[in-house]
Write a structure and sequence with these properties.
The chain is α/β, with parallel strands linked by helices and 316 residues long. The chain is built from 12 helices and 11 strands.
Length: 316
């Protein structure tokens, strides 16, 4: 890695929100920074790159405040929090975290699947509350291995889920915008048909206008009373009120959820359901993945300011 340039020659990077401490420490010697909300006219006029850490909303108004802007680089895989139409109309390049989160997200999706099918969280609470002594063994739960999984979105994360579940003896099929000729799994054009042929439905696709609420009551009815929904994509992929109703009515058997439509708000009805495992949008987050994202961010910014192609472009 080359030595950082002198301080007065460091490129200016605008920040959508303050940097994570790990990022600030690693990037301080390479770039100058200004916070978009506090930037003066000169900084706003100079900035050619906007770094979007986390998931703050980036609107057309934010982008319009930066007349020299050429690059929006995100620390997330999904970029639904950025106005991509405005980026497209401005001719801006957009980058994401690439493969940095893929392994951890795939691991976590499988962990949620196992936790729901075997009721790991509910059994833990049962033991901790003293009910094993008072009431006897926790009820039997279903087998994990040898089931059928439908994966929605066979990108880096979805492909990782497929490979991991193949080791569990799962029959894998998938739904995406188009078939992927290089993969060995059957492509199912209709999401409802994928759900009908699956015991577990895993969501790992991007949130777009086309995918918003793609998992509705019809899809959940097709998944069936023993079916399990796992979501490590975005909360908006699921019609959340309908999910609550389907879980309450026994339309589906359970859910493992890491994401929600209006984070950090979680539908309160889910909190009392022992067939639901909940976490706080952390499938992607480990010290290792944060380090990987930092490498991707540095590679994208270095490439951009050196006039080379960015390493993880988003197709607009």
């Amino acid at each position: 890695m080359s030595a950082p340039p002198p301080a007065d020659e460091r490129p200016l990077v605008m920040l959508a929100q303050p940097l994570f401490p790990e990022f600030a420490a690693a990037l301080a010697g390479r770039y100058r920074f200004a916070l978009l909300a506090d930037a003066d006219t000169a900084a706003a006029a100079e900035a050619r790159a906007l770094l979007v850490g986390g998931l703050p909303s980036v609107t057309a108004q934010h982008l319009d405040a930066l007349p020299a802007l050429e690059l929006v680089t995100c620390t997330s895989v999904g970029v639904d929090h950025v106005d991509l139409d405005a980026c497209r109309s401005r001719g801006l390049s957009v980058t994401n975290a690439g493969v940095a989160f893929a392994a951890d997200s795939a691991d976590y999706a499988v962990g949620l699947l196992v936790a729901v099918l075997r009721r790991v969280a509910a059994a833990d609470a049962y033991v901790r509350s003293g009910r094993w002594t008072a009431d006897g063994d926790y009820p039997l739960t279903t087998k994990v291995s040898g089931k059928r999984v439908g994966i929605v979105g066979l990108g880096n994360i979805g492909s990782g889920v497929a490979r991991r579940l193949a080791a569990f003896g799962y029959a894998v099929s998938y739904h995406s915008r188009s078939p992927k000729p290089s993969v060995p799994y059957p492509f199912v054009p209709a999401l409802r048909d994928l759900a009908a042929g699956s015991d577990v439905l895993v969501l790992s696709c991007a949130l777009t206008d086309e995918t918003k609420h793609m998992v509705n009551r019809e899809v959940m009815e097709a998944l069936g009373k023993d079916g399990v929904l796992v979501n490590v994509g975005r909360g908006g992929l699921v019609d959340e009120p309908e999910l609550v109703r389907c879980l309450r009515e026994g339309v589906i058997g359970g859910a493992g959820l890491d994401v929600y439509e209006n984070e950090p708000a979680v539908p309160p009805e889910l909190l009392a359901m022992d067939n639901v495992v909940l976490s706080d949008h952390r499938a992607v987050l480990t010290p290792e993945s944060i380090g990987g994202v930092l490498e991707v961010v540095i590679a994208n910014l270095d490439a951009f300011f050196s006039g080379r192609p960015v390493v993880s472009p988003v197709e607009l």
